[in-house]
Model the fold of this input.
Amino acid sequence: MSLFWIVVHQLAEIEAMAASKKVITREEWEKKLKDVKIKKEDMNKLVMNFLVTEGYVDAAEKFRKESGTEPDIDLATITDRMAVKKAVQCGNVEDAIEKVNDLNPEILDTNPQLFFHLQQQRLIELIRNGKVEEALEFAQEELAPRGEENQSFLEELERTVALLAFEDVSNCPVGELLDISQRLKTASEVNAAILTSQSHEKDPKLPSLLKMLIWAQNQLDEKAAYPRINDLSTAMLEDPTV
Amino acid sequence: MPSSASASVSVSASASASASSTTTTASGAHSDLLTRLTSSEFEVQLKALRELKNRIIGNRTKKLSFIKLGLVPPVAAILESKAQAQVQAQAQAQAQARHDSNLLVQSAAALGSFACGFDAGVQAVLDAGVFPNLFLLLSHPDDKVVDAGARSLRMIYQSKLAPKCDFLQEKNMEFLLSLLNSENENVTGLGASIIIHSCESTAEQKALCHAGVVKKLISLLKGSLSQRDNSLESLATVMKNNVEAVSEFVGSESGRALSSVIGLTKDRYPRTRLLASMCLIVIRNTSACYLQDIGIKTKLVHLLLELHDDPGQVGDEAPFAFSSLISEKPDLQKLAFEANAIDKLYNHLQKSQLHPKRFQGILLALADLCSKLESCRSRFLSLQALNLVSDALTHDSSEVRTAACMCLRCVSRSIKNLCAGNFLNEMIAPPLVQLLDDPSTSVQVAAISVIGNIAVDFTMRRSLFVQCGDNVCKEGIFMEFTASSLASVICDPEPFVQEQALALIRNLVDGCIKSVELVFTEDGMILDAVRRQLQNASTDEIWIQGMYVLSNVASGTEFHKEAVMHQLIPQEDNGTQSFILKFLQSNESQLRTAAVWAIVNLTFPSCPGSFSRLVKLHSAGIVSQIKSMVNDPCPDVKLRVRTALGQFTTFGDCST
Done:
């Protein structure tokens, strides 16, 4: 996170200088930016960290060859992780559970909340496919005991089973459970758990760095007018409006 | 990444097909799984193992029902045959080796899952005799088998039921070091688990230090996330109450090891922060010379309070770590009080559906906070926290009930509130008394000690008003008891319960005549029970409390004094020595004090029967015994002996 500390440091400097709101011209700003030395390898590591965490295995492989940056995790494990994630995203939850268990049986055994969410997703898929009887039997056999163990699971289970009560699920109060976003939510929860089990950070560093950039700019806005980055996708410096 | 429409159709079809197959097997054909596990065909066996594994992972109910169906032994048998086969046959055909590896991975994973967080499962796995075979997997050529074996063993070592490893045996120590030096993360993790589970005595801690384990663990602090956590927990285990290990650690790498642990209290993972703070607490509590500056103390207090907010296991464990930080340390209790600890813990206590472990932990943390500082007790009482704690007296978990008693006991040390009668109400007294019949001994003991506190008489020499209030309080307690229930706790099989019960009675009868009379209800069965304990029990603690009961009763009316005489000097002379003589000759000064005190009360000069009692005491050899104690080494005893002798002389010298 050295980049972040550079920004904070500069901010403190500016704060010390400016009693009133100071105007910093593009020229001065760019000169300051040039003085900051960022190692190319650090930037590469940041990119690699993003690709690996998000599971872009092919891109990571290519990037490794081109930049010589070694990933901090075995790329083969990414393939397995992505297979699990994809299975959930496609609604094939049972398959995903089996894959997670093959990867590391501890994950679901020691993470009751995640296990419940996967089973809940399985129930949602049964309901989506109109398999009412199976859904009920599954809820009774697999989910109800989890609800007994944990009150908050019970409430979520009730909400899920409520789906069965509506003819038109798209218009029912718990309809969002059938949304694709629910699958994505469950998928990212599994993804994070697998990463943690591999002693890897569950979130990539890059987005939090961007969040810090925005935070730092907001802080700076109160003290100075300066060339700002408004569009993160282009990272163009825009002249201060004075 | 949304899949294409066609893909999702085919996938959901297969999902429903497998779901229906699950539901049909779930409804009955478990025996089918048993048959398949014992099949001679590799494919059938492997499929059955995987199915079993996937059914039990995350599912405690299934684990239990499969254990009951006897599915653990066949899984253990598969593992055993393949683990042994691997040792014997060097050059197996490749295909066969792959088959065996698959079976080993699946069977080890299934056994690990049976054992995961579930003592009944650990027991079943141990009963199946598969434990030593799991160790064989650690030297298997296939990494996946090693991983599976190490994971399963780690699961077993997380239970109290796992066999201890004796580090004092050289080959065990060598084996442990080989685990810690492994390249495989699961294997080093197993090494750490074995230390955490097995290292208990100082000798074991020292053996580990001498073998270089502290150094190894410090190097693991720089490893992966899980290695770091394992290392922190193992370090805490090795350093606990072991000054030598602490100074080795603190001096390591010119203090950098300690700094890195301090640094980890700011880690982004709550689990790591918790373990790092536990490690620092162990260092602090073991060696008073480290980590004493106010900065680190305040930091630990704030960190641990903040970790209570974690919804998972970390939050469940945080109160216990907090307790170990502040227990018996008024300076830290004060810091915690200033950090608003009482309010914060109270807020957690208010949440519904608290996990029993967390509930217990918070109550114990509150107990420690209120153990010494009146400011904490006042804050606690002003929040009406008492209501929540009295609810906890009837909680399903015996640990929670015990913790609630301990909390009440510490809060009821507040003399101000005790005198105001704030603890004796229908919310607290009836459930407390019921806990004396609790199936758990620790609950009984804890309950008695609270009742003892509430009944204690601080106010004898204060105003009459307070005294009346106090007696009402004591009678209130007696109303909840019957004499027979008290007599039965006095004779409880647990010595600790006996002691606490006697201490309670001692407090109940201390003071005015009216409260002494309470022990004479139901034909004096309480007094008989006390005598039985004085004659038959064999610990000083019980004798001391029992003797004080008699001493307090002997401060009552003539009738009361005679009753005590009757207990001290039995009518029929069967040659046995009176227990009071033995107590007067005891090496325990407190016991001598209590015994002399009883004699002082029995021979009080202004009482009409005192002279005749003195004569009886004389012929029992008690007077001469007291005379011989005139220069007792204990000032307390000496003082009372002299009081007694002074009283004797007012009757003239009856020894002639």
